[in-house]
C-alpha cells in the first residue's frame, strides 16, 4: 500500500492549501514494487502522471480522504509506504461555497491539524506489518527531527530528504535520501527516483525478513 502526491485542503471552490509534491517518488516505488511481483494499491493525491501499469490506483485529494482510503485498505496489506506529502492543517470550518470575492482588505483563515495518518495506523498495525514514512525536512537538526518522527510514530523505517535542496525532492526526477531504521542509517546519494525506489525496497525487503525471523 503506497501513497503519492500532495493533498489539497480547500478554502473555497477554487482555492486550496497545498504543496509542491509531484507524486514521482511514490509512483517510482509503486512501479518498482509491482515489477518485483507485489500486489500494489496506490492512493494518490492530485497527481498528473501516467498510470502505473498493473497498479490499482485510487484518488484521495484531501488529507481526510487519504486517511479513509489508507485505513480501509491497511488490513489487507503487509507493507505501508507513506510517500505522499499530506497537509498538516486544514480549515477549521467547511470551505466557502463558491469563490470568495476580492472585496475585502483582509481574509482571516482559521486552521486546525489534519489526522496524522501514520500515527493512527501505527496504533492498530499487526506485528508482521511493515510501515515506512517519509520526512521532508528543512534546516538544522532536520535529520534529528526525522528520527524523532520515526520513534514517535513507531515506524519500522523513515526516509528523510532535505527540501532545502532544489535539485532533488519535490517536482524533481532525482532524489537524495537518508534511510533510517531504529538500528541503522544509510545515505543514498543523488540518483534518479527509480534508482532510489529500488534501494528503498531492498531495505524494506531486508527489514521484513528480519522482522519475520524475530517473530518466529
The SSE order reads: EEEHEEHEEEHEHEEEH
Q: What amount of the residues lies in strands? A: 25-35%
What radius of gyration results from the CA coordinates?
18 Å
Continuous helix count: 5
Q: Number of DSSP strands?
A: 12
Largest sheet: 8 strands, mixed
Low-confidence stretches: none
> Quaternary state, please?
single chain
> Which bin fits the share of residues in helices?
25-40%
Alpha carbon gap, first and last residue: 24 Å
Based on secondary structure, the structural category is alpha/beta
Mean pLDDT: 92
Strand order, biggest sheet?
A: 5-4-1-6-9-10-11-12
Assign an overall shape. Answer: globular
Written account of the structure:
- By secondary structure, this protein is α/β, with parallel strands linked by helices.
- The protein is built from five helices and twelve strands.
- The strands form three sheets. It has an eight-stranded mixed sheet, sandwiched between helices.
- Strand 11 (174-181) and strand 12 (184-192) form a beta hairpin.
- The mean pLDDT is 92.
Brief account:
By secondary structure, the chain is of the alpha/beta class. Helices cover 30% and strands 27% of the residues.
Layout: helices, strands, pairs:
Layout: E1 2-5, E2 9-10, E3 16-17, H1 24-35, E4 41-45, E5 56-59, H2 63-73, E6 79-82, E7 89-91, E8 111-113, H3 117-124, E9 130-137, H4 142-152, E10 157-162, E11 174-181, E12 184-192, H5 193-215
Parallel strand pairs: 1-4, 1-6, 4-5, 6-9, 9-10
Antiparallel strand pairs: 2-3, 7-8, 10-11, 11-12
Amino acid at each position: 500500500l503506497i501513497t503519492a502526491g500532495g493533498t489539497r485542503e480547500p478554502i473555497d471552490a477554487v482555492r486550496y492549501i497545498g504543496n509542491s509534491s509531484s507524486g514521482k517518488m511514490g509512483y517510482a516505488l509503486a512501479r518498482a514494487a509491482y515489477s518485483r511481483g507485489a500486489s500494489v494499491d496506490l492512493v494518490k493525491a492530485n497527481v498528473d502522471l501516467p498510470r502505473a501499469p498493473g497498479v490499482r490506483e485510487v484518488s484521495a485529494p484531501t488529507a481526510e480522504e487519504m486517511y479513509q482510503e489508507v485505513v480501509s485498505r491497511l488490513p489487507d496489506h503487509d507493507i505501508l509506504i507513506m510517500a505522499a506529502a499530506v497537509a498538516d492543517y486544514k480549515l477549521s470550518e467547511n470551505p466557502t461555497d463558491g469563490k470568495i470575492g476580492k472585496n475585502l482588505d483582509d481574509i482571516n483563515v482559521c486552521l486546525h491539524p489534519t489526522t496524522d495518518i501514520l500515527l493512527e495506523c501505527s496504533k492498530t498495525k499487526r506485528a508482521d506489518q511493515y510501515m515506512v514514512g517519509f520526512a521532508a525536512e528543512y534546516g538544522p537538526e532536520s535529520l534529528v527531527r526525522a528520527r524523532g518522527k520515526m520513534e514517535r510514530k513507531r515506524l519500522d523505517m523513515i526516509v528523510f530528504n532535505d527540501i532545502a535542496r532544489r535539485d532533488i525532492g519535490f517536482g524533481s526526477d532525482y532524489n537524495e535520501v537518508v534511510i533510517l531504521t531504529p538500528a541503522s542509517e544509510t545515505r543514498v546519494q543523488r540518483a534518479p527516483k527509480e534508482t532510489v525506489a529500488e534501494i528503498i525496497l531492498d531495505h524494506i525487503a531486508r527489514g521484513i525478513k528480519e522482522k519475520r525471523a524475530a517473530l518466529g
